[in-house]
Amino acid sequence: MNPPPIRSDPGTFDPRFVPTLDEARRRIAAVLRPGDLAVDATVGWGRDTVFLAELVGPTGQVVGFEIQDEAIRRARDLLVQRGLQDRVTLKWLGHERLNDALDNRAVIKAAMFNLGYLPGSDHTVTTRAESTLIALEAVWRRLDRSGLVTIVCYPGHPGGMEETHAVASWAADRASSGDAIAWSCAFLNSRRPPPRLVIVAPTPRPNGNASS
Fold it and tell me: What kind of fold does domain 15-202 have according to CATH?
């Protein structure tokens, strides 16, 4: 069985939700360059991992986190098919273990979180607010001043609304402290709780340069 086309909102695949993921990728593509380090905090079937690997090029590196065996296997197979396996390290770990997996001096240019459960797999295996917040803090402490983080949240499954609120509160706290620019969007014409995209980037320095 082939993996679903994207990690969608719970239930039947709905192409109206594709722009949410497209927007996350568009923002990532605006900052990620060859030679950079990127993190895929929720590898799933590996499509975001491939996207990041193509952007960082042969001199860059992607570190991906996933806890489901089948997802890791299929993601690895996809990377091999695309010839990208040498620039990606897949970790069979929850993303809350990010600090354990990266070198202490590693600087992340971009990170993608695509939360919720993995379509076509056990729907009781989902990301959780507590571990997601740990991972976000770990990424934030390592994030380059010119980098950013994208988080796609899915409030429509059990625990999803709590996680969405937790992520939004985390982003708002970063913004209110002056450390970050935070942005969020979601479709409003859905009868079900729609996916919500949250983007967080370090605040540019006074001279307008966001780089370290």
Answer: Rossmann fold (3.40.50)
